[in-house]
Design brief:
The protein is an alpha+beta fold. 32% of the residues lie in helices and 39% in strands. Strands 1, 2, 3, 6 and 10 form a 5-stranded mixed sheet that branches. Strands 4, 5, 7, 8 and 9 form a 5-stranded antiparallel sheet that branches. β4 and β5 form a beta hairpin. The chain is elongated, with a radius of gyration of 26 Å. The relative contact order is 0.20. About 4% of the residues have low confidence.
């Protein structure tokens, strides 16, 4: 009996089983993971374009101190909004402050004014979708009122 022929058959069978196993892992784990992440990033990109800072209604009053930031929402429906604001502490030092905001206009869009008891030099705005922060929608410098 020739044992070499048998080892070639065993090797070929193992390679086929290994290939089938790899295809199964990819189809059961990797494809659904990629599909879910693609859905989420698509939703973020739809929402990002619908949020902007209304510059002529966004300003700070250093004497109070108070900052009014007005955000325009298009026909988008994010779960929330995040703001990263730069506090004007001295002329050379900026300290970032972060705010998560859930009080936003519902579908159909509109404008919403947010008032903070501090004065800010700049603001970064972005949506929150499915509990996660999407990339920045807009970055704006804030002028004095």
């Amino acid at each position: 009996m020739n044992k070499r022929g048998l080892s070639n058959v065993v090797t070929a069978t193992l390679l086929i089983l290994l290939t089938i196993s790899a295809i199964t892992v990819v189809s059961l784990i990797v494809i659904p993971f990629a599909r879910e992440n693609l859905k989420e990033s698509t939703r973020c990109s739809d929402v990002i374009t619908g949020i902007s800072v209304v510059n002529d209604k966004t300003c700070y009053d250093a004497s109070v101190p108070q900052t009014n930031i007005t955000i325009r929402f298009g026909d988008v429906n994010p779960d929330g909004l995040y703001l990263v604001a730069e506090d004007v502490v001295t002329s050379n030092l900026l300290t970032p402050s972060e705010y998560n905001i859930s009080d936003i206009p519902q579908s159909g869009g509109g404008q919403k004014k947010y008032t903070f008891n501090n004065y800010f030099d700049g603001v970064i705005v972005g949506p929150i979708v499915n509990g996660k922060r999407c990339p920045i929608s807009e970055e704006a410098k804030i002028q004095r009122c």
